[in-house]
Amino acid sequence: MIRREQGRGNFVNAPRLTLGTFALAESAYQATQTRKLALEVRAADDRIAARLELAVGAPIIHVEQLHLLNGIPIMTEERQLPQFLCPALVDEDIERQPLHWLLVHKYKLPLVRVMHTIEARSASAAITEELGVPIGSPTFYIDRLTYTTYEGSIRPAVWYRAVCRGDHYQFKAEFLSSL
């Protein structure tokens, strides 16, 4: 908190800001509905294999979901995870049970590290169809890689990508002083 500079004196350091928490929150506090678009085993392509540190062609579980608020699409999301982590996941009812809850509580996957990127973008043509918004509408693009411990090492567990409508979500961050 205090630094000494020889020949000049003692000075108080400015407080350091650290990222405490952040969240992407729905602006409306109403019940949402989740619709399963895909839940299947696929072969990992080059991009997925590289991201999950798997061999190309390794079996992965591919999940696509659409979230609706009062019947309006507000978020589309996609997950990829190695099949060996929870092979029975493809038999789950992911419209009634949150996928995160299943991974952590039912399949006992300890989620130990997260690399999370949120980017504000204008809606592309593909997203306008999925979310029913005009081209150029504000959206949040999310890319998250979650890690787990498996056989004594930390390895990628879930590659998550989502697009949220900017008119239904807001990005919140809390910064804390280290003082």
What report would you give on this structure?
By secondary structure, the protein is mainly beta. It is built from 3 helices and 10 strands. It has helices at residues 46-52, 99-106, 125-131, and strands spanning 2-5, 9-12, 17-26, 32-43, 59-69, 72-82, 111-122, 138-150, 153-165, 169-177. The strands form 3 sheets. Strands 4-5-6-9-8-7 form a 6-stranded antiparallel sheet, with helices on one face. Strands 1-2 form a two-stranded antiparallel ribbon. Strands 3-10 form a two-stranded antiparallel sheet. Strand 8 (138-150) and strand 9 (153-165) form a beta hairpin. The protein is globular.
Main attributes?
179 residues; mainly beta; Chorismate lyase; six-stranded antiparallel sheet; two-stranded antiparallel sheet; 3 helices
Order of strands side by side in the largest beta sheet?
Answer: 4-5-6-9-8-7
Highest CATH level, the class = Alpha Beta
Strand content: over 45%
* Shape-level CATH architecture: 3-Layer(aba) Sandwich
Helix segment tally = 3
N-C termini distance: 8 Å
Oligomer: single chain
Strand tally is 10
Summary of the model, kept short:
By secondary structure, the protein is mainly β. 12% of the residues lie in helices and 55% in strands.
Task: Please give the structural blueprint.
Blueprint: E1 2-5, E2 9-12, E3 17-26, E4 32-43, H1 46-52, E5 59-69, E6 72-82, H2 99-106, E7 111-122, H3 125-131, E8 138-150, E9 153-165, E10 169-177
Antiparallel strand pairs: 1-2, 3-10, 4-5, 5-6, 6-9, 7-8, 8-9
